[in-house]
Amino acid sequence: MKAATTYNIDKLRKDFPILERVVNGKPLIYFDNGASSQKPQQVIDTLVKYYSGEHANVHRGVHTLSQHATDKYEHTRTLLQQFFNAEHDYEMILTKGTTDSINLVASAWGRAFLNEGDEVIISTLEHHSNIVPWQMICKERKAVLKVIPINEKGELLMDEYEQLLSDKTKMVAVNHVSNSLGTVNPVKEIIRLAHQYNALVLLDGAQAVPHMKVDVRELDVDFYCASAHKMYGPTGIGFLYGKEELLNAMPPYQGGGDMIDKVTFEKTTYNDLPHKFEAGTPNIADVIAFGTAIEYLNEIGMDAIAAHEEEILEYATEQMRQLEGIRFVGEADQKAGVISFLVGESHPYDVGVLLDKLGIAVRTGHHCTQPLMDRYNIPGTVRASFGLYTTKEEVDQFIKALQRIQPMLS
Length: 410
Ligand code: C6P
Description:
- This protein is α/β, with parallel strands linked by helices.
- It contains 14 helices and 17 strands.
- It has a seven-stranded mixed sheet with strand order 4-10-9-8-7-5-6, with helices on both faces. Strands 13-14-17-16 form a four-stranded antiparallel sheet, with helices on one face.
């Protein structure tokens, strides 16, 4: 769908105070949204308001402040349920972020349901957060980790995926969008095939949810997770969606306050969903501000954001193609938000430092995907990642900056 004519980027940019910043004497061009996006004033205001006049612990007090904080905290859960079209709000577990969510599933589900000889499938495109927790639990449970290979463009080899699937497959855990290459994976097909073998599917949506509409029921995904800080919300918070029957069947992840029903020294019974998976005092302020970020995205509309970013991605890719000496890493047919590249023979770090001198923030290195970099036999890439506030003028400045630094690199 094309951008709504109402996509008023100048107005949107005014919501983000940091975009006024000057870095190294130049206006900031923030192309590191894949690492973390910037925060609109609305989200910042929610945090200030909460700490200035609303703070109390949640789920614990009968007093007004505690009840008010609890209502606001739980309101974020409802917003998340609606945003991702989950059937029930208690299927949305509030976690510290994507990493925490994947560790929760690998640990709690894995300990209960993975047995010797079972198989877990991940892909070459995964972030370390969707590799290491599975390696750890597979080692503990004597299960086998299998990896879907990719082609040179950075797309999953679906034929190979089908070959890997068998009755031994218990979990398929892949990202929705690759953080390093921007590849949008054919997740509906991945899920359909996995379900034919009664395997569950966890999607790491960290790089998908800021860029596109996601409907967990339409996908029929079993677990889906992401982080607030890439969705224009605060750091230290995220969510895990899980189908009710799966979450109910899983043992708790951590023990402590709030996750219990009745505790004696002999035995403990556990609270219902979602509290069973939310031990201890949560990150209340940031959860509430996450709700503000969701409302902010709702107001703009995910379809409008997706269309705007698609235009930016196309424009930037086209402009970069005109430059000599640029090598794209990852040229999947379906991409979102990200251009990974190398400049001639130069090290990504040198490119990043020179761009920074011109006020342009990009990420360089392996992007927490070392096996993927090994696949391409490179130490890392330069990654430009876009957001809802990225403009074509910024892309033009970026292209000029690349032209300017190229002679310095050779
Ligand atoms: N990727 C990047 O620059 P946390 O740190 O838990 O919020 O998210 C981890 C994570 C998991 N999966 C994917 C696909 C991700 O992109 C990330 C975070 C950032 O690419 C920081 S390493």
